[in-house]
Amino acid sequence: MTHTPDTTAPILLEASHISVRFGGVTAADDINLQVRQSEVLGVIGSNGSGKSTFLNLCTGYIRAAAGEIRFQGRPITHLSPREITRLGIARAFQHPQLFLDKTVLQSIVLGVACRNRFWSLGTVFQPGYRAKADAIVRTFGLGDYADTLNSALPEGVKKLSDIAIAMALEPSLLLLDEPTSSVSSANKFIIMDTLMPILRNSGVTTIIVEHDMEIVERYMDRVVAWDSGQIIAEGSFSDIMRNEDVRQRVTG
Amino acid sequence: MKLNSETFVLLLVIAVLALVPLADISLRAILLLAISLAFPALGLGLLLRSGQVSFGHALYYAVGAYTVAVAQKLHVTDVFLTLALALAASMVLGLILGAILSRYRGIFYGMLNLAFSMVGFTLLLKLYDITGGSDGMGILRPTFLGHKFSNPQTAWAIYYLAVAVLVAGILFLEQYMRSAPGSALGAIRTNETRLEYLGRSARQVFLAGHVISAGFAGVGGMIIAYSTSHVTPELAYWTLSAEFLIVAIFGGAGSFTAITIGALAFVLLRNLISSYVVDAWQLILGIILLGIIMYMPDGLWTLFRKKPDAKAP
């Protein structure tokens, strides 16, 4: 499922000299990273290495103390999560953030409405939105759960529902934080095998924070390895596994 | 609109409101009082969808009522014009105060509303020159698009206007809950984070809900002004805010029709009980509320809702 990275594709996201500290912990130390159009980039690192911080920087949840992040050439370092989302960066969460009072389909329809004309008294289940939401439900294989409340979903399906809502925004960049954590080892491949064709078909650029090396090896086009707020290796999975530091400090 | 059980109950409520006063005219005043109570309760019902309660919506109720009085002082006597002014005044105040209130949730939102309403109550009491202080202000018989009717005719016209506006209000709220900003109100209760990461402001969604709820309270105030022909600062007092909340919870957050029934039941019960037993209304109301909270925690709505959509995976 991995594709050879296209090094001529335009740069979608570029972080330059990004630094963040939390108290005495350096979460990002002069980070430089480029993400190219339509690649699926894996971010690996031990707990506290700063890999989730990087996602939070990209979505504006955390502000960098120094440096700049550009998305489609435009600086986003000082924008709020909402403004960044509206530029085309969507995210899913390690702990799915769902509307527990709504069904899977209702949530996705609301997501579609948020992407389009939100401030309208028209019914959110209008044919156009409904068709888009139905298509998303189908491609994510959520048909059996469409009318189930999010609160009643099994853990793995919650993960997919969370990503499906993010995809309702038709983002240019999708950020996923451990999409297979707290899911059984059989289910994690089901999730990824559902997800990858959707990502490939839509051409959405994706950054996936992942600690599961089987998943990283099997699905990521390119991998960056973090340690103590720094990128210590970058390249294909086999490339970075040749790196002594990565073997010792990241994959143990 | 699908003809489900809730639509059927709404049609029944409309029929009762339209026909009962024709059979027994003495009930008209009581029903009009119930309608004026239903409006602020419906506004609070909308806020309940976002999981929020306000202890100060009497402020907007009073603003709606005093708008009628002040407009008449300025020779604006048309009933439709005063309706529009009462709606506009309460919504504008809702927008101004909501700019601050929409930052808060839970007990902070509830109590800040209370605080603003107490300020409003005191202003109505102290600004004698405009509001007449504790004497309040009188309300004259309004005109209808330039026509002046006799006293009994006017009373009928106001009654049926109130019924029509109530039905329009319920239909509006139901449509609002089907729209994106209405659907997102539920997200205030369950997950504001996800809403922000869908690129929409939870605060703006909540502010819109607050402004609409203020508008409903204002329309209720306009109706009470015409129904009692007199407005006093007590209309802004916090015990009235609590009454609105009791009616909203009595009806249940799940259905606007149920809240309307809640308002009717509340006023009819109060009249019935106080005519048979003196000074026992609060006692009996307390017992009824206790029963509802213990056995029907979702209010009267429990009686005619569908089974929840959740199915076991």
Report on the architecture of this protein.
The complex is a heterodimer of chains A (252) and B (313). Chain A has helices at residues 51-58, 81-87, 104-115, 127-139, 155-167, 185-202, 213-219, 237-241, 244-249, and strands at 11-22, 25-36, 40-45, 66-71, 74-75, 89-91, 173-177, 205-209, 222-227, 230-235. In chain A, helix 3 packs parallel to helix 5 and helix 5 (155-167) packs parallel to helix 6. With 252 residues, chain A is α/β, with parallel strands linked by helices. The model of chain A has no long low-confidence stretch (mean pLDDT 93). Chain A has 2 domains: 11-95 and 172-249, P-loop containing nucleotide triphosphate hydrolases (Rossmann fold, 3-Layer(aba) Sandwich), CATH 3.40.50.300; 99-152, no CATH class. Chain A is built from 9 helices and 10 strands. In chain A, a hairpin with a 2-residue loop joins strand 9 (222-227) and strand 10 (230-235). Chain A is 35% helix and 25% strand. A 6-stranded mixed β-sheet of chain A has the order 6-7-8-3-9-10, with helices on both faces. Chain A has a 4-stranded antiparallel β-sheet with strand order 2-1-4-5, covered by helices on one side. The radius of gyration of chain A is 18 Å and the shape is globular. Chain B is mostly helical and 313 residues long. Chain B has one domain (5-304): ABC transporter involved in vitamin B12 uptake, BtuC (Orthogonal Bundle), CATH 1.10.3470. Helices cover 73% and strands 1% of the residues of chain B. A two-stranded antiparallel sheet of chain B has the order 1-2. In chain B, helix 3 (58-73) packs across helix 4 (79-101) and helix 8 (180-190) crosses helix 10 (202-228). The longest helix of chain B is centred in the middle third of the chain and has 28 residues, at 151-178. Chain B is globular, with a radius of gyration of 19 Å. The two termini of chain B are 30 Å apart. In chain B, 49% of the residues are buried. Residues 308-313 of chain B have low confidence and may be disordered. The A-B interface holds A 59, 81-82, 85-86, 90-91, 97-103, 106, 109-111, 113-115, 117-125, 145, 147-149, 151-154, 157, 165-166, 168-169 and B 175-176, 178-184, 186-187, 189-191, 193-201, 308-313.
